[in-house]
Amino acid sequence: MQKWIHQPSNSLLMLGDFNANYYVFPYEVDPDTEIVIKGQFPYSRYMSFTLSGQIDTVIATAPDRALIPDPGSTNPFLPGADWNAENRNYTIRIRSTAPPQGSEHFVPEAGNNTFYAGTLKDGTPNRFGLIGFRIYVPSIGYDKTGGVGLPKITYCAARKDFINKSISLTIDKITQAENLLNQVNVFNKETSFQRCSDMVERNCDLTWSRISAIATRILQPDLNTVYVISDQIKRDLGKLLFIRWKAPTFPDTYHNIGILGNEEMRYWSMSFITRVGLLGLYSLSDFQTIIDRKGYVNLVISFGAPRPSTVTPENGFSWIDASKLPLVPLTLFYRNNQVYQGFPYTAKNVPEGQIVPPEVMGEYYPCGTYVNPLYFNSCYYDFNDKHDKNK
After folding, report:
1. What is the mean pLDDT of the chain?
2. Organism's domain of life (predicted)?
3. Looking at residue 280, what is its pLDDT?
4. Domain boundary among 183, 214, 234
5. How many CA atoms lie within 13 A of 210 on its CB side?
6. Same domain, yes or no, for 249 and 225?
7. Full strand arrangement of the beta sheet holding 280-285
8. What's the total number of domains in the chain?
């Protein structure tokens, strides 16, 4: 058997989220050996497995929704599924061969979800790598594994006569689930852009960019997660950094409410990281953020300036005292995890390493401005009174 190795969120080169738990175990390609992982779907916001090969090259990722449960079990991460299902088992196999002709490197199947580790994505033979396991936001009342413990890893003799006869059937099941997500996620793009026009036209002091291809390789994400990073944060002891953006909707799995399928994304967070070493320092996740009655996040960050009396949760503000963070160059890292296909307001179509224009994300763009603390003596009324009067 093999044990998981915990990777702390503040590890170098991790860009870690402090509401996530990361685990890995190394493997070597051996045609005579098959790795079997058996686990239970956790009570958490999100989980995934990532197969990487030599030189940290991502081969395939299986997010929770793509795993077919064992016969008689339920995948609670599918929309409308029983969140509290007692039978929630899954099985994953890592085979040291190339995928079947015409197949991907991950093939879902009930009781037999399979990764093929014998080659890299481009067909190059693979010799070794890592299996990564992520768990985001365990539900309230459960431990960091989401109440189910870590999956068990066993090395077995490879099945020489292995033929995956259920590929087309199980892929059809995944496709049906994805189609359901797309049907329930219908957004009025024109109306949203009209509402966000004032937001887009504002001058924003922060510039956001898609992370580079190198950073993407380090993160080893699945293809439906979008990351943007800000330019360096100015530590002005006399000013506050005020960031305002429309909050994407997300499922409230933290309070053990199941996934409906009409949420705009599965998870989002704003994290402080170092410019050098990509070291995670602090995370503010969706479920920890105050969202005002208009659906916006009003995040105020201090580097030593006092907290204005109006900047309170009751008035719709979130507050971070960044003066307590290490005195190193800082940047912000905005995660959009598992964006549903019908939601257009992310940077997913911006090339890696390129600046994200505000109009791409519309009102969901985190517009950051450095302001004097006295600013909030008047803007409190703007957010809470004037908007109501102009309905």
Report:
1. 85
2. Bacteria
3. 82
4. 183
5. 19
6. yes
7. 208-210, 226-230, 330-339, 265-274, 280-285
8. 2
